[in-house]
Write a structure and sequence with these properties.
Distance between the termini: 74 Å
CATH architecture of the largest domain: Up-down Bundle
Shape: elongated
Helix content: 55-70%
């Protein structure tokens, strides 16, 4: 009965989750919230449809592993190395602020510093799984605030093992176990080993696997790499997620990264749902109702503290106020690893049952609020920007340095974003000698590009002063190529207001953004997900020999109509009357060898009047090594020439008979046509 009970639990989980998420989608509530609510409903503190939550929690841990493996695939090792400074300048201060403020606020309540420091450690962690999923769904993983948040979250995950070492020291009369210190050292070695093996050995292994053309084997090896790396770091005392992320990161630089991600995505989306459901199961509804005031005050304090601890270091690191605010709201929740630390702290006597339940209830509510906070982030940033804040903090420290080098060019192109698309565009413009300037919010990218002599400036494209500074009011075109939908919309709106005649080209990830961007003033919107479709159908039509100008016309029509024909099944499909329908099936091309006895020897095409007599056309004639294309009426045919004829099948046959008629019964069937 054990396997059946497990299957029954899974059926209940997915049935309830599917229903709740469907309802929440209809009322435009993020699916993450629906999954949390589903967990509350089916958990032991709700309707108690599932009594043994350990099974679901085990699958949820695997879901987090797969999620972090997929995130690693979408990262790159150079990008992670580049995050080292962000981890030191934002991640370390964020954790330090949370620990210091959390301990300072609770030391009076506990009457002891040790449990107060433990509370600070709980507050320091934010949810990697929740934030990465939300940013990925919103297309903001590569945005400036997404980049900062990712660095902070990965830094926190790497600190989990350190926190596990510290907990016994904080317990009454406790001491750190030697095995924990050993785990810290061994874990560091394992991390380095995973990166080296993944970078240099795993691609060769996958090459041998791919050569077998066995998809099942390829998938099995991927599962082995993902779960094996997670198990290896877990055995060293580190988290499962760190190992999975490093495995994905090592594969991200290989030629198999795209196919690997495609294979992993279905597992990621399915199993990561179980993580959010398992978090919802932790919420004791009765305890929440009985202590509602205490829990709500705790939630408010947590959100404010996490917002300040994430936003302030970002601001001090030189980022604009807007990016600092967006980073703060992105990190304003308690993380999944805090649940592990809280459980361990309860066992060590650092907190009692009531305090543990209060923390769990508040933590689950902060996670539930995260989608709403991230959605409201741009509005919060705009509201704070209206306060009397010094310009240095509002636009960022590097933007203040940029103000000394004002752009004076005219008729140039302003490129927003120096990622892959921005760099490629800059290379092309440089090759054709068109002036351009680039706006970028990654200070390291700006610094490196300027060392190479690139006209790259640090600045926030949503600020009118920054756009004016790079000469937008005298520029000819604006190209927005960033992965931040909110900033893209704002940049288009501000740019159109500054320069009503400027031509604005926008790259967006989702087609749903097209209509709004058009209304805000963008001239050309290129949605990535449909540009791929456009290129595919163009290639297919070329294989059918459609005229290139007709294919170009179809592409222009699709783009001009805002991809409506591709994204809306209610729109009537395009009707195209092909200018050569069925012509290729009717045409016939054959060659004919003119023998010595041919009656057309030494006669011109004008004398033969071949087209009028037969309907076929002499396309070309070969004489020895010479080829005469489309010969005129004065062209004189010679014996041993090879005439190439085109026309309908009957017309070509009549032309062959004219050029070299049958000699009689004796030679009939010898054949004079050379197909």
């Amino acid at each position: 009965m054990e396997p059946f009970d497990f299957l029954r639990d899974l059926l209940i989980v997915f049935a309830v989750a599917a229903g709740v998420v469907f309802v929440f989608q209809r009322i435009r509530v993020p699916s993450v919230v629906g999954l949390l609510v589903a967990g509350v409903l089916i958990g032991p503190y709700g309707l108690s449809l599932i009594h043994e939550t350990e099974r679901v929690e085990t699958l949820a841990e695997i879901g987090v592993v797969v999620l972090l493996f997929a995130v690693g695939l979408e990262f790159s090792l150079p990008r992670l190395v580049g995050m080292g400074r962000l981890m030191a300048r934002v991640g370390l201060p964020q954790v330090s602020l949370c620990v210091a403020i959390g301990a300072g606020l609770t030391v009076g309540y506990f009457g002891d510093l040790r449990p107060a420091v433990f509370v600070g450690l709980l507050l320091a962690m934010s949810s990697t799984a929740v934030v990465f999923k939300l940013l990925s769904d919103r297309g903001e993983m590569a945005s400036p605030h997404g980049n900062v948040a990712a660095a902070v979250l990965l830094f926190q995950d790497l600190l989990v093992v350190v926190c596990m070492v510290i907990l016994p020291l904080l317990a009454e009369g406790g001491d750190a176990e030697p095995s924990l210190w050993r785990a810290l050292g061994l874990g560091t070695l394992v991390v380095a080993l995973l990166l080296v093996v993944g970078r240099y050995l795993v691609p060769h292994l996958l090459f041998q696997v791919v050569r077998t053309h066995n998809r099942e084997l390829f998938l099995m090896v991927l599962v082995l790499l993902c779960l094996g790396s997670a198990a290896l770091t877990a055995s060293m005392g580190w988290s499962l997620a760190v190992g999975a992320f490093l495995a994905g990161l090592a594969l991200s630089e290989s030629e198999y990264a795209t196919q690997t991600l495609a294979e992993v995505l279905p597992f990621r989306d399915t199993l990561s749902c179980l993580f959010f459901i398992s978090v919802g199961m932790l919420l004791d509804v009765q305890f929440l109702i009985a202590n509602l005031a205490l829990v709500l005050v705790t939630v408010l304090a947590l959100v404010v503290l996490k917002f300040a601890a994430g936003g302030l270091p970002t601001l001090l690191a030189g980022y604009p106020l807007r990016i600092a605010v967006l980073t703060g709201v992105t990190l304003a929740q308690i993380g999944e690893f805090s649940f592990i630390l809280a459980h361990r702290g309860l066992a060590l006597g650092l907190v009692d049952h009531t305090q543990h339940q209060t923390f769990l209830a508040a933590a689950v509510l902060t996670i539930t609020l995260t989608p709403l906070l991230i959605a409201l982030g741009p509005r919060v940033a705009d509201a704070i920007a209206t306060l009397p804040i010094p310009r240095r903090w509002r636009v960022g420290r590097w933007a203040a340095e940029m103000s000394e080098q004002k752009v004076t060019a005219r008729g140039h192109v302003v490129i927003v974003g120096y990622g892959l698309n921005g760099r490629n565009l800059a290379r092309v413009l440089q090759a054709v000698d068109i002036d351009y300037v680039v706006l970028e919010l990654n200070p390291e990218t700006v610094r490196q590009a300027r060392k190479r002599g690139e006209p790259v400036y640090y600045g926030d494209c949503t600020r009118p002063a920054v756009l004016k500074h790079v000469g937008l009011n005298t520029s000819r075109q604006l190209v927005v190529a960033i992965s931040d939908p909110a900033s893209t919309r704002r940049a288009v709106e501000v740019a159109r207001r500054i320069n009503p005649s400027i031509h604005i080209i926008v790259r967006t990830r989702y087609l749903s953004e097209v209509q709004e961007l058009r209304l805000l003033g963008a001239n050309v919107i290129i949605p990535e997900e449909f540009e791929t479709s456009v290129e595919i159908f163009a290639q297919v039509l070329r294989e059918y020999d459609l005229p290139p100008n007709l294919i170009r016309d179809l592409i222009e029509r699709v783009r001009r109509e805002q991809y409506e024909v591709l994204r809306d099944t209610k729109v009537s499909p395009m009707r195209v009357v092909l200018p050569h329908a069925n012509i290729l099936e009717k045409l016939d091309i054959k060659s004919c060898w003119l023998r010595q006895r041919s009656p057309v020897h030494d006669r011109t095409l004008g004398e033969l009047n071949l087209r009028t007599a037969t309907g076929a056309t002499l396309l070309a004639a070969r004489r020895g090594s010479e080829l005469f294309l489309n010969p005129g009426p004065d062209f004189r045919l010679k014996a041993d020439d090879i005439a190439i004829l085109i026309g309908e099948r009957g017309q070509v046959e009549r032309a062959i008979e004219l050029l070299d008629p049958p000699a009689g019964p004796a030679t009939e069937g010898a054949g004079n046509a050379m197909p």
